[in-house]
Design goal:
It contains 4 helices and 2 strands. It is mainly alpha-helical. The chain has a domain of 43 residues. A hairpin with a 2-residue loop joins strand 1 and strand 2. The radius of gyration is 48 Å and the shape is flat.
Length: 166
């Protein structure tokens, strides 16, 4: 590596006298003017300078995790508009429905509440659901269980018969 760098330096130093030996009468173009500048003014890249250390990056498997930039401060929200105040109507004291209609509606809601109310006596919701599902489960088993059992018995008999033959 050192030999290569020395070779490059030697070639550069050989080119410098050739640039100085150029005739002064020849017009100098822009690129030539940059080459004719003294070496002190140019930035020299030294290949032996160490590279700056990279910032440590946290990794999780193949993913690199970078610190998140701080979130910008939230914008100040304008104060909400006050709700408009409605003037009280003169008929607010008068009910919307008559007394007999209100009584009949309350009676209907009472019947509905009693019909769907949970049973008393310390029973849980699981007890009620089990009680409701038992007839459905019984009907399904009555319809499907014989077929399922018959198919499984036939599979087992066939498996045993194959084992004895082989």
């Amino acid at each position: 590596m050192e030999e290569i760098l020395a070779s490059i330096r030697r070639i550069i130093s050989e080119d410098e006298p050739a640039a100085e030996a150029a005739p002064a009468e020849a017009p100098v173009s822009e690129p030539m003017a940059a080459e004719a500048m003294p070496r002190e003014a140019e930035e020299v890249l030294e290949l032996t300078d160490p590279l700056p250390e990279p910032e440590p990056v946290e990794t999780h498997g193949d993913l690199e995790v970078h610190e998140a930039e701080p979130e910008p401060e939230p914008e100040v929200e304008p104060e909400p508009m006050p709700e408009p105040v409605m003037a009280a109507a003169a008929y607010d004291d008068e009910p919307l429905v008559s007394d007999p209609t209100a009584d009949q509606t309350a009676t209907s809601f009472g019947h509905l509440a009693r019909s769907i109310a949970m049973p008393k006596g310390g029973r849980t919701l699981e007890d009620v659901v089990g009680e409701l599902l038992r007839p459905l489960l019984k009907a399904w088993l009555d319809e499907n269980l014989p077929t399922i059992v018959q198919a499984k018995v036939e599979e087992e008999v066939e498996r045993i018969a194959r084992r004895r033959v082989s």
